[in-house]
Automatic annotation (TrEMBL), chain A:
Organism, as annotated: Fictibacillus enclensis
Record domain UPF0033: where: 7-74
Family in the record: Belongs to the sulfur carrier protein TusA family.
Pfam family, one: TusA
InterPro entries to which the protein is assigned, alphabetical: TusA-like, TusA-like_sf
Protein name listed in UniProt: UPF0033 domain-containing protein
UniProtKB/TrEMBL annotation, chain B:
Gene3D superfamilies: Rhodanese-like domain (3.40.250.10), Ribonuclease Z/Hydroxyacylglutathione hydrolase-like (3.60.15.10)
One Pfam family here: Rhodanese
Ranges of residues in domain Rhodanese: 17-112
CDD domains, per the entry: POD-like_MBL-fold
UniProt feature coiled coil, ranges: none
Organism taxonomic ancestry: Bacteria, Bacillati, Bacillota, Bacilli, Bacillales
Protein name listed in UniProt: Rhodanese domain-containing protein
Gene Ontology biological process: glutathione metabolic process; hydrogen sulfide metabolic process
GO terms assigned for molecular function: sulfur dioxygenase activity
Length: 75, 375
């Protein structure tokens, strides 16, 4: 999947993956796609809930060798 | 204003004293609905931390002025962030050290009673998960029953008292938590007992806890008799200690009874469970002290945080012991609560078939025990 920006949040513990994601998202235009890589297990449910609460669309999420990859489209 | 940490032990004291505390839980809503810190006088507000990244102004009016506020999250990081934001607004707040993981792992020993020839019986209360384990000591020796995954609390307790852990016993193959029995046996050289009917698929050495076996703890001393009491699992075994204490495992609880569905089909074990509760237990003296392996509600905790009941009283009050056959079948097979988190993986880990790392083990044990037919 194609993204407009990549955020590497690997190795960061909660709450940093979401803090960084929010910052990156704020800098994007509407409908642009942010790709987030995170290793914190909590990021899976939290990023999903965060995107939903903010009205963003989680286009895809997968796990590759302990790395969670998210594609989130800005509202 | 500064933020302060509150330990799981300090929170536990407030639960037991029934003091008040305002819990601002910043985990996401599903997680909070599923499992939280329970206290009879606690108040709660659940706002996920990611809804507070722009500031805490919106929630200031929802926070009390005259009650201590504890910010809680899964591991600690987010609660510190939110506590600092509140502190910048002039509030004095606490955060939970180690988060819900630490709450899940905290064990609190409480003395339940003395034994006839000296020695004592202690209950280790795992408040976060509702698990109860036991340390029976006599004449310098100790037995641990249904030990939690965290073996350090038993080891340091024994060290402080100058006693040796000689035996570790599981009343059944657990589905809600990872047993510390095998680990205790490896670390202390103690003998690990498990009912043979629950051990078909066990991949490591254990000693069978056969029906009618007697284990003697201490030289002088107390005996532990095992009584096969199937129903929660096919091997489930009850221990009678010092002719006084009845360790009922996951068969009989103070306010509920065990569920028969976690190791297979509920229908298969309904008859066994009924027979154990309505016949085998009926034949025992009514003055025995029942000590179960779980509790579900904090209202079951006594003044010191202990969970116990008199067997005869349970035959009067526990609704699970007052059902006719049809009602009983329905109660233990229909509308059961959700299964414990990761219960299949937990059973396999307890068989020695899976060896998850420590972080994965902590993750598997998240949530309440859910071994009773009612939540």
């Amino acid at each position: 999947m194609k993204s407009d920006q990549l955020l590497d949040a690997k190795g960061l513990a909660c709450p940093m993956p979401i803090v960084r994601t929010k910052k990156a998202m704020d800098a994007l235009e509407s409908e642009q796609v942010l790709e987030v890589h995170a290793t914190d297990k909590g990021a899976k449910s939290d990023l999903t809930a965060w995107a939903k609460a903010g009205g963003h669309t989680l286009l895809e999420m997968n796990e590759d060798n302990g790395v969670f990859v998210f594609f989130i489209q800005k509202k | 204003m500064a933020i302060q940490k509150m330990t799981a032990a300090q929170v536990a004291s407030r639960v037991i004293r029934k003091s008040n505390l305002f819990i601002l839980d910043v985990r996401n809503e599903d997680t909070f609905q599923d499992w939280k810190i329970e206290g009879e006088a606690f108040q709660y507000l659940n706002i996920p931390y990611f809804d507070l990244l722009d500031g805490v102004d919106d929630i200031l009016d929802l926070l009390p002025k005259d009650t201590d506020i504890l910010v809680v999250c899964a591991k600690e990081g987010s609660s510190v962030m939110v506590a600092e934001m509140l502190s910048e607004q002039g509030l004095d707040v606490f955060y939970l050290k180690g988060g819900m993981k630490a709450w899940s792992e905290y064990l609190r020993p409480v003395k339940v009673g003395s034994l006839k020839n000296g020695g004592a019986l202690y209950q280790f209360v795992r408040l976060g998960k509702g698990c109860l384990s036991y340390l029976i000591e006599s004449d310098g020796e100790a037995m641990i029953v249904d030990p939690a995954r965290m073996t350090e609390p038993y080891e340091s307790f024994a060290k402080d008292k100058g006693i040796m852990i000689k035996y570790a016993v599981d009343t059944h193959l657990h589905a809600d938590h990872i047993s510390g029995g095998r680990m205790l046996a490896e670390k202390t050289g103690s003998t690990y007992y498990l009912p043979p009917k629950d051990a078909d698929e066990i991949t490591f050495a254990y000693t069978p806890l056969d029906d009618g076996r007697t284990i003697t703890v201490g030289g002088t001393s107390i005996s532990v008799e095992s009584i096969h009491s199937p129903g929660h699992t096919s091997g489930s075994t009850t221990l009678l200690i010092d002719q006084t204490y009845l360790l009922t495992g996951d068969i009989l609880f103070v306010e509920s009874i065990g569920r028969p569905d976690l190791a297979g089909k509920a229908e298969d074990w309904v008859g066994d469970l009924r027979n154990t509760l309505y016949h085998s237990y009926r034949d025992l003296p009514g003055n025995l002290t029942v000590l179960p392996a779980h509790f579900s509600k904090v209202s079951e905790l006594g003044d010191q945080g202990e969970v116990k009941a008199v067997l005869g009283d349970l035959f009067e009050k526990n609704e699970g012991l007052h059902l006719d056959e049809a009602e009983f079948r329905k109660a233990v097979t229909e509308n059961l609560p959700p299964q414990p988190n990761a219960y299949q993986e937990i059973r396999k880990t307890n068989m020695g078939k899976l060896s998850p790392d420590q972080e994965a083990q902590q993750e598997m044990e998240i949530g309440p025990n859910r071994c009773a037919i009612q939540d």
